[in-house]
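Try this one yourself first.
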């Protein structure tokens, strides 16, 4: 890969153009570029020669590294976009399926707990206002 100049890759230039056409945010642009560069370093072949199997193997590599579901989904989204629009490997949905997220249980406060918090906050606001008056008078 040392002879291969990454930034001159036609696939990578197309990738940059496709993101520009779609008006991706600066953060998405930076993230996707970083991911495609990491992927390219991993596979060690010119991007134009990437196959569906290369994408699949990279996702398996990330699974073995036990990255978070959110990280995995971000990598998968970037690779789906790259594979579908820059390499024309098929539809995005057929390239890499999204992983299921972790289900977190959200604790909902009771009415009594909300009331206590409200009273506590109001007391804090009242004492802050009184302290401000004392300071301005003194």
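Now uncover the answer:
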């Amino acid at each position: 890969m040392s002879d291969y100049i990454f930034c001159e890759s036609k696939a990578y230039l197309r990738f940059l153009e496709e993101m520009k056409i779609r008006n991706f945010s600066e953060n998405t642009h930076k993230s996707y570029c970083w991911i495609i560069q990491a992927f390219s370093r991993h596979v060690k072949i010119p991007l134009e020669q990437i196959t569906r199997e290369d994408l699949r193997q990279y996702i398996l590599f990330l699974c073995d590294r036990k990255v978070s579901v959110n990280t995995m989904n971000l990598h998968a989204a970037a690779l789906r976009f790259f594979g579908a629009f820059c390499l024309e490997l098929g539809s995005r949905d057929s390239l890499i399926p999204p992983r299921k997220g972790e289900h977190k249980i959200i604790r909902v406060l009771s009415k009594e707990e909300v009331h206590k918090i409200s009273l506590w906050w109001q007391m804090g606001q009242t004492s802050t206002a009184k302290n401000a008056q004392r300071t301005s008078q003194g």
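Discussion: The first helix runs from residue 10 to 21. DSSP finds six helices and no strands in the chain.
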